[in-house]
Amino acid sequence: MTDRKQSDLTELQRVSNVSRTSSPDESVAAEYSLKPTQYFAGARKRFVDALPPNPSARLLEIGCGNGDTACYAKQSGKCGWSAGVELCHDAALAAANKMDHVLPGDIEQVDLPYPLLHFDVLILSEVLEHLRDPGAVLRKLRRYLAPGAWVLAGSPNVAHHSVVRMLARGRWDYTTAGILDETHLRWFTPETYRELFEQAGYRVEVVAPASPLRIKAKLFNWVTRGCFEHLLFSQIYLRARVD
After folding, report:
1. Which residues of the chain are in CATH 3.40.50.150 domains?
2. Is residue 93 left, alpha or beta, with left meaning phi > 0 and alpha meaning psi from -120 to 50?
3. C-alpha–C-alpha distance, residues 85 and 115, integer Å
4. What is the dihedral of CA 47, 31, 234, 208, to 10 degrees?
5. pLDDT tens, per residue, the chain with 243 residues
6. DSSP symbols for the chain
7. 101: burial class by Cβ within 10 Å (0-12, 13-18, 19+)?
8. Distance of alpha carbon 190 from the chain centroid
9. Of 121, 147, 157, the residue nearest 201 (C-alpha)
10. What is the b/e burial string over 63-86, where b = at least 16 CB atoms within 10 angstroms of the residue's CB?
11. Per CATH, which fold does 148-243 belong to?
């Protein structure tokens, strides 16, 4: 391990110890510690692949997990420096070996130690649904983004037909993963997700399914002229810019 990485890891461990003893939300972090390791792994390749090549770009990822996405971004030439915020202590320690700086803690509580207008890319993959006030967090983060910065985000779509059918049965059943993950505090449809970002001052360019629709869903969407597309996908993908 390089001296720089060792220094970052030492600082991460120091801050983590303070967070564990002073945070009023230890129970929240404990919930995530019960998640399987793979919950924090995997590169969000669609997000990274959407970015233009820029080896000098600075990337900030909220909920960076074990750092796989930022690592992939650097390997792909989409950024040259990356920072992350991660609530789960063990995942943050893993990310410290792949990213240039990792801040453990709750993004709703931590103070970011970065200059304003510092980042060219912001990634928020499956994060906002876990927050008490996602709008406030988006406004907070916007101050750290340079003009023209790319913002890539994704969250579950509560308008998916599986949820609608469940409500028609008079049920609202939490699960350990998916749209109704028991750790979710907020839920969005594609339209309200767009509004969340626009109201926080972002210019939204794309709101779409996170994955291509399957054949039957494509046919239904074509027949209904896209009027019910929001029922057909479980994950929302959003791309926005900062003016």
Report:
1. 1-34+41-125, 148-243
2. alpha
3. 15
4. -30
5. 445 444 544 444 444 433 333 344 555 555 555 545 454 456 889 999 999 999 999 999 999 999 999 999 999 999 999 999 999 989 999 999 999 999 999 999 999 999 999 999 999 999 999 999 999 999 999 999 999 999 999 999 999 999 999 999 999 999 999 999 999 999 999 999 999 999 999 999 999 999 999 999 999 999 999 999 999 999 999 999 999
6. --HHHHHHHHHHHHHHHHHHHH-TTHHHHHHHHTS-GGGG----HHHHHTSPP-TT-EEEEET-TTSHHHHHHHHTTS-SEEEEEESSHHHHHHHTTTSSEEEES-TTTPPP-S-TT-EEEEEEES-GGG-S-HHHHHHHHHTTEEEEEEEEEEEEBTTSHHHHHHHHTT----BSSSTTBTT----B-HHHHHHHHHHTT-EEEEEEESSPPPHHHHHHHHHTTTTTGGGS-SEEEEEEE--
7. middle
8. 16
9. 147
10. bbbbbbbbbbbbeeebbebbbbbb
11. Rossmann fold (3.40.50)
Burial of 13 (0-12, 13-18, 19+ CB in 10 A): middle
The tokens describing 104, both together, are 């453990």
Q: Which two tokens stand for residue 53?
A: 């090549």
CA distances from 85 to 107, 206, 225 (A): 7, 25, 41
Structure tokens at 208: 């779409």
The dotted CATH code for 1-34+41-125 is 3.40.50.150
